[in-house]
Write a structure and sequence with these properties.
The protein is mostly helical and 344 residues long. It has helices at residues 3-28, 30-55, 60-91, 93-115, 119-163, 165-175, 180-219, 224-233, 241-256, 261-290, 294-308, 310-328, 335-340. It is globular, with a radius of gyration of 24 Å.
């Protein structure tokens, strides 16, 4: 074996050990790492605002609090606006429930008359569905509880990360003491990728919220603004979020409208928006920001989901973007960048 081959084997072995250690650490300490990683994404958005305020002689702590307050007010305004429609949805639940029962009865009559499926068989299916739904609801409550625990930690981490940002930067530079200039360049490069990803994501969510809401309003679907914003926010889970977000207005259209064509219209609307988002909006807004091809992105999200759940789906893309930068500056690992990149 040549010395070059031995060196590559050595580097690949070391990389495998490091990745295995990181995966184990993520699994064991995800209760801390998940909110910390999500907080880091928000820090990338708020940091430029904090810097601007510091330049006009506002001390760091008030600058951080003002930046966080501004973000909370914007987010709170959006949530409050969509919350009005959520309140209407809750008020209308009894009437929706009656329509659901009527729809189920109609389906049952159709199954019995046309397919010969007896009422006892249908009751058995419904009981099984109810049991599964109960388990799903229990799991949803547990997930919601976990999410609230994570959300409660995020503001604290954002504040502390912004407060001690200079220390973290100095730590990384000191860690690579022999190449301080290169360390600064890598930090700025990684920061640019993450900031571009998060900013691009917010822009995409804003555009999709408008398209979803306008489309649902034109179809006459109830709670259009709420569902439009909700499904747009779910796009932070790539490839999956749009499908899940479209499921709720589809069901509402099915039970609140006299014709099933409205539900078909919702499906067509979300299919068109998904096509536009996947082929025009996201590639043009975020394509050059992270530069990861869909195959690698999908594999990363599957692995991230297995390790960290929903948070792993969200964090997978920026993590792979950082990994691509690290690989691009290694002579041995740079061939992997060819597999990872969307555009050369």
């Amino acid at each position: 074996m040549t010395e070059n081959f031995k060196e590559k084997v050595k580097i690949f072995s070391q990389l495998s050990i490091v990745l295995a250690f990181l995966v184990a650490l993520l699994i064991v300490a995800k209760v801390v790492i998940v909110p910390l990683a999500i907080s880091f994404l928000f820090v990338m958005i708020l940091n430029p605002l904090v810097k601007r305020m510091e330049k006009v002689k506002i001390p760091r702590i008030p600058a951080i609090l003002l930046a966080m307050l501004s973000f909370v007010l914007i987010l709170g305004g959006i949530l409050t606006y969509s919350g009005f429609q959520l309140a209407q949805l809750i008020e209308d639940l009894p009437s929706i429930e009656r329509k659901v029962i009527a729809l189920v009865q109609d389906i049952g009559d159709t199954l019995e008359s046309r397919m010969g499926i007896s009422a006892p068989q249908q009751d058995q299916w419904i009981n099984n569905l109810g049991n599964n739904a109960g388990s799903l609801f229990t799991g949803l409550l547990q997930t919601t509880s976990s999410v609230l625990t994570v959300v409660a930690q995020i503001p604290i981490y954002i504040f502390l990360l912004l407060l001690y940002k200079d220390k973290f930067r100095a730590f990384v530079i000191q860690l690579f003491d022999g190449a301080k200039g290169m360390a600064r360049e890598r930090i700025d490069e990684i920061k640019g990728v993450i900031q571009g990803y998060v900013l691009g994501l917010f822009i995409v969510i804003g555009i999709l919220a408008v398209l979803n809401s306008v489309g649902l309003l034109l179809l006459g679907i109830k709670y259009a603004l709420f569902f439009g914003i909700f499904s747009a926010i779910l796009t932070i889970i790539p490839y999956i979020g749009n499908f899940v977000g479209g499921l709720f207005p589809f069901l509402v259209a099915l039970v609140t409208k006299d014709s099933a064509w409205y539900a078909v219209g919702v499906v067509a609307l979300y299919a068109v928006i998904q096509f536009i988002e996947g082929n025009f909006i996201t590639p043009n807004i975020m394509g050059s920001r992270v530069n990861i091809n869909p195959l690698i992105a999908l594999i990363a999200m599957i692995l991230g989901g297995q390790i960290l759940g929903v948070a792993g789906l969200i964090l997978a893309i920026p993590f792979i973007g950082i990994l691509r930068i690290a690989f691009s500056h290694s002579q041995t690992l740079s061939p992997f960048v060819i597999l990872m990149e969307e555009h050369k």
